[in-house]
Amino acid sequence: MPKNRNTFSSLAAWRRRALSRAVHRGWRWVQESGAVTAEHPGRLRFGRIGEGTRLAFPQGTVFGEPWIELGAHCVIGEQVTLTAGLMPDLDLGPEPILTLGDGVVLGRGSHVVADTKVTIGSDTYCGPYVYITSTNHSYDDPHEPVGRQWPRMEPVAIGPGCWIGTGAVILPGAVLGRNVVVAAGAVVRGEVPDHAVVAGAPARVVRSWDSEKGWQPPLRTPAPVPIPSGITPEQLVALADPGETPGPSGD
Length: 251
Fold this sequence. Notes:
Elements: H1 2-34, E1 48-49, E2 54-55, E3 62-63, E4 68-70, E5 75-76, E6 81-84, E7 98-100, E8 105-106, E9 111-114, E10 118-120, E11 125-126, E12 131-133, E13 135-136, E14 152-153, E15 156-158, E16 163-164, E17 169-170, E18 175-176, E19 181-182, E20 187-188, E21 191-192, E22 196-199, E23 204-210, E24 214-216, H2 233-240
Parallel strand pairs: 1-4, 2-5, 3-6, 4-7, 5-8, 6-9, 7-10, 8-11, 9-12, 10-15, 11-16, 12-17, 15-18, 16-19, 17-20, 18-21, 19-22
Antiparallel strand pairs: 13-14, 22-23, 23-24
């Protein structure tokens, strides 16, 4: 009897392993088949989707695609929301509403909500669960529920080369310069100059670059090894996190 029990136990374990391998192979096939690219856009008809750009499967909420333009070699993680307009099926005019430059990375679960113009510059990297919006609730009338009051909309512009950490929130009217670092969890509004590091809620500048003195206050870590020329955003993300493709996860 013990021998039979061992035989049945080994058989059950083998079946579980085989089922697990089959499930993982199937899910990888679904991820590959469900990814959106310029060659395989599926149901999504973006105003533009550049060469080498890939939206991982499963995608988040996506609507207003004719007014969304994605540059080349962008990496859009799983469950990322991209919307143009307050709701689907609106005519938003002749100009794009949401524009991503070349090489933009949006981490898993991020939201870019563009009810009016939102621009993200080339080579900007966003960690997971970043929230970028051009719309905020208004609460002027104390007698009316906030959700029923007409929202306020202001354009958002994020310069090229920025790094936006996990869980950061970029509010309507924000204008970020070139190579700005936004710390994880920061809430950004207003203008941020080039080559600044901002942190906190509301975010404030905690470090900035001076052409004569360098970084002030000085950096506490040694300079990193330069990124080799010609490396793609996909390769860079894979090097940072071989198991995922969501983009940077820190500040």
